[in-house]
Amino acid sequence: MNLTLRQLKVFKTIAKVGSYRKSAKVLNTSQPALTKTIQSLEYSLGVEVFRRNTRSVTLTSAGLELLGRIEGIFEQLDQTVDSVRDVSSGRGGSINLTYVDFAILGTLPDTLARYRRYNPRIKINVQFASTADQIALVKSGKADLGFVMDIDLKLPSSFCRKHVVQEGLVAVVPPKHRLAERETIELAELELESFIMGDTWSRYNELIRDLCIERNFMPQVTHKAFLRDEMLAFVMAGLGVLVYPKCICNAGLLGLKVVPITDVPPVVRTTAIWRADAKNPVLPSFLREVKPM
C-alpha cells in the first residue's frame, strides 16, 4: 500500500465539500484529476470510499472510517509543521540547564519563571550538578547552559560566560546560639565554632578556609554533607555553624538564624556558561532573560 498526503488531502476535501466540482475549485485543479486521484486511493485501499450519483457524493462506511482516522493525522501534521518552524526560530524546542545549589536559591527561579511566561512552548530541562560536572556537560553538548560557582574559574577557550550575581556571606546558626540575636558579625567571631561544609564543595570550602586563615585561624570542620537540607539539619541539631552565601535566606530555614558577615566582601559569584559554538536556537532567547544582579 502506498498512500500519499495528496490522496488523503483530496479525499478529505471531497468528503467535506460533498462535490467533485466544488472541490476542484477549492484545490485549484480539474475534476478529472480529482477522479484519478480518488481512483488511485481506492485501488491502494482495495475499497470504495465514495458513493457517487449525478447530484452528490457520499461516504461509504469505509470512507467514514478513513475520514475519522485522517483528521488526527492532519492535525498532528499541522502541529509538526508549527513545531518545526518554532524550533527553527527559537520559539519552540527545548533547552537543557544545569545549576549549583547557590543558583537555585538565587536568581535562577525568577529567570525560569520569567522565561516560561513568555515562552510557554519551550520545554526547560534542569539538572543539579557540581561546577566541574557542569563544565563537562556543557563541553559535551549534553547541557546548553550551566549556572556555576565562579571563584577564579578557569574555562575552556571555547566557552562564553555571563556573570549573574555576586554575594556576600552569612552565618547560619541555631536559634539559641550565642550569635543568634546579633545583627552582624565578623568572620573571626566563628574561630571557636565547629564548621559544617558540603562534602563536594571543594573550591568553596577552600575559599572559606582561606578567608579564615587571613584572620589567623583554621576552621574546624566537624561535619560534611552532600545536601543543603542535611547541613541545615546539622546546624539545627547544634553540631556546628554553616557559612553560606546570602541566598540561603531564600531557603526554608525552620527557625534557624542568619547573621550577615560584614568584614568579607561579596566573594561568591554565580555565572552562566555556554559554548560559543552552541547550535540550540533556543539559547539566545534564554540568555536574554539572564539578567545580572
TrEMBL record:
Keywords of this entry: DNA-binding, Transcription, Transcription regulation
Record-annotated HTH lysR-type domain positions: 3-60
Superkingdom, natural source: Bacteria
DNA-binding keyword on record: yes
PROSITE patterns the record matches: HTH_LYSR
Record-linked InterPro entries: LysR_HTH_N, LysR_subst-bd, WH-like_DNA-bd_sf, WH_DNA-bd_sf
Keyword Acetylation: no
Signal peptide start and end residues: none
One Gene Ontology term of the molecular function aspect: DNA binding
GO cellular component: protein-DNA complex
Similarity annotation: Belongs to the LysR transcriptional regulatory family.
Protein name according to UniProt: Transcriptional regulator, LysR family
Lineage: Bacteria, Pseudomonadati, Pseudomonadota, Alphaproteobacteria, Rhodobacterales
